């Protein structure tokens, strides 16, 4: 069992920055694929960034160059550093981890464990 606890909720102005954290407890999520998803009201949940078990990263086109995902194995924590935030980035953000080793593509991983969600609001 992997438990994921997120932190970093915030309200920022357009162009601002924010960092989300996802700390794992219980069984480590090392060697699992990890990802950050978001869901805005009335829209489907979408993968915004991910890292495969082997360390290959993925970013959806709308966040490339603005968001950076990383993992700290010593702290068993994943991060999403967001900069150049836009109003359309407003959503609840969720971190997730795969159930098994998954190294093919972050988009195809079986995401089984989920964080509780953190609200990110970008508004002037």
> In terms of structural class, how would the helical and strand content be classed?
mainly beta
The counted number of beta strands is 11
Q: Which percent bin holds the helix content?
A: under 10%
Q: Give the strand content.
A: over 45%
Number of helices: 0
In this structure, how is the largest beta sheet organized? Answer: 7 strands, mixed
Descriptive notes:
0% of the residues lie in helices and 50% in strands. The chain has 124 residues and is mainly β. Strands 2, 4, 5, 6, 9, 10 and 11 form a seven-stranded mixed sheet that branches. A four-stranded antiparallel sheet has the order 1-3-8-7, with no helix packed on it. The protein is globular. The mean pLDDT is 94.
In short:
The chain has 124 residues and is mostly beta strands. It has strands spanning 2-7, 10-12, 18-26, 34-39, 46-51, 57-59, 67-72, 77-82, 91-98, 111-114, 118-122.
Question: Which descriptors would you attach to this protein?
Answer:
124 residues; 11 strands; mainly beta
Which SSEs are present, and which pair or pack?
Blueprint: E1 2-7, E2 10-12, E3 18-26, E4 34-39, E5 46-51, E6 57-59, E7 67-72, E8 77-82, E9 91-98, E10 111-114, E11 118-122
Parallel strand pairs: 2-11
Antiparallel strand pairs: 1-3, 3-8, 4-5, 4-9, 5-6, 7-8, 9-10, 9-11
